[in-house]
Structures are given as C-alpha cells and as structure tokens.
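Last lecture ended with a question: if I hand you only a sequence, what can you say about the shape of the protein? Today we answer it with a concrete record. The protein is Conjugal transfer protein TrbE. Below, first the input exactly as provided, then the predicted structure, then a couple of comments.
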Amino acid sequence: MKINFHKQHAIDFVLRLTLTIIIISPVIYFSWDAVKATSGSDYVESVVFIVAVGFSGS
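The predicted structure:
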C-alpha cells in the first residue's frame, strides 16, 4: 500500500527520499565503522567458520 504524503508527485518523492536517507544513514555509518575495524585474521576466521558450519550441516 502506497501512502501519498502530498498531492504533487515531486514533493512526495522528495519527502520519501528524505525519510529513506534519515532511516538508512545510521545503518550505513555503523556498518562501515565495523568494516574498517576488521583485520585480515578476522576474514580468515570467518571463512573457516562458514566452511565448518557448511560442512557440519550436510
């Protein structure tokens, strides 16, 4: 169901875009912060974990 915030389509689009940016910006910020803090050994550990869980499930 689509809710119309305003009768003019351009204003409705800008309002939807603004709300989307406000809602998504903290998610992107904290996700990027986590990516920057990840080291090479973390990647190796996660690959080993994914492979081990994948093989144990089959």
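Comments.
1. The chain has two helices and no strands.
2. The chain has a mean pLDDT of 81.
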